Automatic annotation (TrEMBL):
It comes from Andreprevotia lacus DSM 23236. Residues 2-146 form the EVE domain. This is Predicted RNA-binding protein, contains PUA-like domain. InterPro entries: 5hmC_binding, EVE_domain, PUA-like_sf, THYN1-like_EVE. Pfam families: EVE.
Amino acid sequence: MNYWLMKSEPDDVGIDDLQRMGSVGWYGVRNYQARNFMRDQMQLGDGVLFYHSSCPEPGVAGLAEVSKLAYPDPTQFDPESKYFDPKSTVEAPRWQQVDVRFVAKTRLLALDELRRYSELAGMTILKRGNRLSITPVTPAEWSFIKALLT
DNA sequence: GCCAACGTTGGC
DNA sequence: GCCAACGTTGGC
């Protein structure tokens, strides 16, 4: 059992969209490190902090869980998609996605609030220059954040 | 819209 | 295999 923070742009898929849809395929990851987390380390039931990025109020907006193990991201094969990858083939797909299931919408735990807790100072998301859209969360960080949100 | 940070690409 | 150029991310 692992824990993750996954960034999504609420203009694309926000926590309300996830709640409405129940679960979503986490399409569009085009970074090898993030892909490898999904492909190699995610397990069914892993806890996910659903994070809103590139928006007026960036921060954790809800909780989710991994509901399907990694499988090929269909958008890589779709020439109409902005995530189309001409170098990828169905036989040897380059990009993977998992499904993520809605668990709860929470209050917005804003980025500037996250920065205020010394318990969270080690979080990858808070490190300078971090751009990874999927990052591991330690059990201690997960517990601390869950306590803040419930 | 700016720009720092960082990943990827491609010529050599 | 190096590394400059380029593209993207994402907070501000």
